[in-house]
């Protein structure tokens, strides 16, 4: 029998997401349970959005959770390279094959033309998508355009009639009409592949047997299956897991909940508890146990028992489980060493101590001054923000702009954060002192403390974001309307 091979294929375009870890966990359980292999592939075809920092964070976060992999960019393996940006030749070669067999075609349509087609389709309430214009070009016309260097992409042919039928391990038979499937771009004008093309070529070459991924990819599966068919390859088995949801059942988003694994690490959750909680997303142990390890889950795992009702990622429930771990699974000795590791991380201490040295007379002064470095959300209320000039709305704006700017920035060093605050203060026409006031309160819980710029840089994006957001809520929160207005002002700035 063919060896089971599963994979996780994150795009390194942001924080390491709890959703990535959830999909990784289920893929890993399935592979291990079948004595198979679990692979990590980095899908960095979007060169503008992919960053090294994000890739490193993904590796570190998954390892922290104990979700290691058999093959991947950092551990190697027989089917590499495992980073798509290093596989351009492979895609170019495969693209050529599809052009030769007529399954794909050159498209020279300009963005303006595509916009017009789209606008017309919307006006006609017709299905949106490419209208097949360049399929009608003669060989001579194509050769001529290519010779004169007209910018182009490669698209796949897609039938206009009938249905694509496939079976999903969890959902059974699925039918999607080809009408709804766009003639997907396979190669962009810069010669790089799109997600769909690279993903299929890689899954095949890496001998992936089961594609277990989030349900947002169901509608892409027909394109993928068609590509397998065009190449004459056997398609893997598909399984689309339910998406994680906020407690209000909307799709899990960082607007409503912290979604970065780094946040949970920095807030002092235990990795065993977080990964256990992710295991409760759509999965229950056959004996109903709520506390279980990855190994126990792997042993008992049965993909077909995953329930499709949208699993809710509820931080309150996670807090309960984490507390249970601390009470029941962590001995006093372990508590001491785990807490010390978390609280007195050497690098962090090296950054914090210079801020304190000149301000304390006794060690007993340290906690009142710097305890906020170790706290979650400071205890603040509206009174904490009392200020001579600034009104609540202005402070909400400062806080919100700072969140957006920090999220956009790839330099959270002390100087990077300072430059960012100075720029925002100038933009909002405020004195830097006033500008920093709400940040001080949000970050430290007090109006005066050690430098808030240093504090943001040391505490890091994830917990900073949570504190600033908490402060916005304390200051009355931003309505949808206010968010829209702020977004507009912010766009003018960037
Ligand atoms: N790169 C895709 C993502 O970021 C992978 C989707 C898939 O598993 O096919 O989710």
Description:
This protein has 494 residues and is mainly alpha-helical. The chain is 47% helix and 8% strand. The protein contains 20 helices and nine strands. It has helices at residues 18-33, 52-64, 88-100, 111-123, 139-147, 195-205, 221-231, 261-266, 271-279, 294-300, 315-328, 332-343, 346-356, 366-370, 392-408, 414-427, 432-444, 452-459, 461-474, 480-493; strands spanning 5-8, 37-40, 104-107, 153-156, 163-168, 172-177, 185-187, 210-214, 237-241. Strands 3-4-7 form a three-stranded antiparallel β-sheet. Helix 17 crosses helix 19. The protein is globular and about 80 Å long. It binds glutamic acid (GLU). Glutamic acid binds at residues 9-11, 43, 195, 199, 213, 217.
List the helices and strands and how they pair.
Blueprint: E1 5-8, H1 18-33, E2 37-40, H2 52-64, H3 88-100, E3 104-107, H4 111-123, H5 139-147, E4 153-156, E5 163-168, E6 172-177, E7 185-187, H6 195-205, E8 210-214, H7 221-231, E9 237-241, H8 261-266, H9 271-279, H10 294-300, H11 315-328, H12 332-343, H13 346-356, H14 366-370, H15 392-408, H16 414-427, H17 432-444, H18 452-459, H19 461-474, H20 480-493
Parallel strand pairs: 1-2, 8-9
Antiparallel strand pairs: 3-4, 4-7, 5-6
Helix pairs in contact: 1-10, 6-7, 9-11, 13-18, 15-16, 15-17, 15-19, 16-18, 17-19
The chain binds glutamic acid.
């Amino acid at each position: 029998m063919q060896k089971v091979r599963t994979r996780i294929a994150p795009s390194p375009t942001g924080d390491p997401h709890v959703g990535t870890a959830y999909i990784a966990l289920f893929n890993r359980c399935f592979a291990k349970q079948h004595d198979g292999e679990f692979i990590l592939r980095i899908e960095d075809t979007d060169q503008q959005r992919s960053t090294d920092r994000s890739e490193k964070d993904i590796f570190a976060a998954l390892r922290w959770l104990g979700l290691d992999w058999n093959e991947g960019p950092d551990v190697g393996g027989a089917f590499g390279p495992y980073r798509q940006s290093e596989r351009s030749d492979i895609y170019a070669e495969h693209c050529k094959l599809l052009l030769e067999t007529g399954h794909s075609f050159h498209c020279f349509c300009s963005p303006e033309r595509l916009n017009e087609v789209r606008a017309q389709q919307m006006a006609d309430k017709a299905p949106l998508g490419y209208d097949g214009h360049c399929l009608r070009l003669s060989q001579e016309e194509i050769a001529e355009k290519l010779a004169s260097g007209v910018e182009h992409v490669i698209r796949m042919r897609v039938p206009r009639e009938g249905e694509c039928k496939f079976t999903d391990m969890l959902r059974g038979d699925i039918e999607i009409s080809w009408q709804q499937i766009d003639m997907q771009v396979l190669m962009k004008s810069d010669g790089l592949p799109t997600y769909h093309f690279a993903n299929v070529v890689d899954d095949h070459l890496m001998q992936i047997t089961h594609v277990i991924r989030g349900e947002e990819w169901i509608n892409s599966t027909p394109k993928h299956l068609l590509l397998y068919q065009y190449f004459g390859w056997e398609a893997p088995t598909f399984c689309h897991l339910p998406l994680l949801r906020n407690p209000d059942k909307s799709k899990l988003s960082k607007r409503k909940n912290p979604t970065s694994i780094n946040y949970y690490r920095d807030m002092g959750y235990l990795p065993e508890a977080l990964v256990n909680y992710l295991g409760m997303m759509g999965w229950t142990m056959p004996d109903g146990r709520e506390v279980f390890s990855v190994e126990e889950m792997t042993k008992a795992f049965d993909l077909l028992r995953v329930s499709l009702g949208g699993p809710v990622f509820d931080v309150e429930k996670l807090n309960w489980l984490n507390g249970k771990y601390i009470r029941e699974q962590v001995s006093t000795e372990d508590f001491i060493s785990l807490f010390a590791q978390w609280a007195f991380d050497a690098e962090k201490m090296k950054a914090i101590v210079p801020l304190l040295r000149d301000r304390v007379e006794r060690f007993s002064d340290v906690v009142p001054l710097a305890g906020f470095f170790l706290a979650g959300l400071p205890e603040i209320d509206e009174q904490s923000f009392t200020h001579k000039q600034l009104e609540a709305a202005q402070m909400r704006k400062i806080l919100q702009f700072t969140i957006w700017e920090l999220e956009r920035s790839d330099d959270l060093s002390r100087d990077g954060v300072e430059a960012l605050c100075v720029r925002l203060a100038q933009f909002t026409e405020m004195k830097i002192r006033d500008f920093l006031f709400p940040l001080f309160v949000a970050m430290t819980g007090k109006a005066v403390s050690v430098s808030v710029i240093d504090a943001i840089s040391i505490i890091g994006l994830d917990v900073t974001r949570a504190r600033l957001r908490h402060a916005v809520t304390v200051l009355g929160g931003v309505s949808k309307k206010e968010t829209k207005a702020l977004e507009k002002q912010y766009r003018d700035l960037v």
